[in-house]
Amino acid sequence: MNTDHCTAPSYAELRPLKPTRTDTFPVYPDLVETLLTAHRYPDHDVAYVMAVLSAYAYSDPQTVAMVMARMGLEDNHCLMVAEHVDVLFLTSTSYLLQSKDGRVVILCYRGTPPTSVITWLTDLEIDPVRLAMPVPPDGSREYSVHAGFYRNVRSTRYVLETALTDAIEGRSVQPDGGSMPNGMEALYITGHSLGAASAAMLAVMLKTEPEFEPIAQRLRAVYTFGGPMIGSPEFAKACNEDEFLRKKVIRYVYANDIVPQVPPHASGHFAHFGTEYQYKPAGDHGRWHHNKQSRKQMTNLVELVTTPLSFLAKQIRITRDIPFHASINDHLPQYYIDALKPRGVRSEFGD
Predict the structure, then answer these.
(1) Environment class of residue 293 by beta-carbon count within 10 Å: exposed (0-12), middle (13-18) or buried (19+)?
(2) Are 152 and 111 in contact (CB under 8 A)?
């Protein structure tokens, strides 16, 4: 990365506002313990928390910290790390949320605002780049991965590594945040849209590069929502031969969300890895289904161009007459939150 053309990472630290109604918040009084002891993947409660965080990552640090306090990470330490260079299509923003006892950290990457997703798909560099990534079991074979996604993660990963190393050693993820009661025991990574791509890419780096082993040992799972493909079919196959990347990189797809179907076939050959769940609406009783075969690349570029019509069609209520196979509307993060909220569990608003 040419540092002459990059901005320095920016940081924002804060403590969240405490909920005032103890009968309403936190949504999960034992969230830290749940994150530490979760043994099934996916865990429905964890998935819901991650979906909420991924949606609010489009906001500011104060809001992110407050919402996560409501969900159960009260008095959390929140760090924002961002780097943006328009000419390089670098748009990387992430949040580290550390529990007040220091035992749990969640890394959430911000995605691309759904209102600009078509601009993103059009403008972001999608040509694959070949990299020597030590994906098991091949060791150091070269694989093709999405150049733009790779640069986004590389632009901030060493800053994040420093903060996560501090967390392991019992310090706050915030610069000059002081010591914590405990070192980090569990790490989760999550994100929506572009954030999902970044989360998956970082998971591969953590699990395959020896320098990140102390962090990787504490990585419990990766929850992504509406994420695109990040690498070639050969790359995806190699990732799926690693047990963690196959089982614990969990990808959620809402209905006909367009983003999990891109990059389009015209941009090169791409494929998903990990475990995929797709929500299939059926009135008031939609369900998540485990897809044995992951979503495939979009082959018809006309669908990419006409996808915005699906959003318009929904607004004027004519979707029953037009069979859209790719939808921007289905990419909206609130649909993921609503579909993943377990029955009987309150929302982030307390209702």
Answers:
(1) exposed
(2) no
The per-residue pLDDT for 203 is 97
Contact call for residues 342 and 44 (beta carbons, < 8 A): yes
Residue 149's CATH number:
3.40.50.1820
Q: Which helix (H) or strand (E) holds 144?
A: strand 142-146
Scanning 135-287, the segments in alpha helix (DSSP H) are 147-154, 157-168, 194-208, 213-216, 233-240, 243-247
Provide the domain count of the chain. 1
Beta pairing, strands 249-254 & 275-280: parallel
Contact (CB, 8 A) for 58 and 111: yes
Residue with tokens 């076939």: 265
The pLDDT score that the predictor gives to residue 147 is 82
77-85: strand order across its sheet: 10-14, 77-85, 90-98, 104-109, 186-192, 219-225, 249-254, 275-280, 287-291
User: Which domain covers residue 37, as residue numbers?
Assistant: 3-300+333-340
pLDDT beneath 70, residues of the chain: 1-23, 86-89, 114-128, 130-132, 136-140, 283-284, 300-326
In the three-class reduction of DSSP (H, G, I as helix; E, B as strand; rest coil), residue 64 is classed as: helix
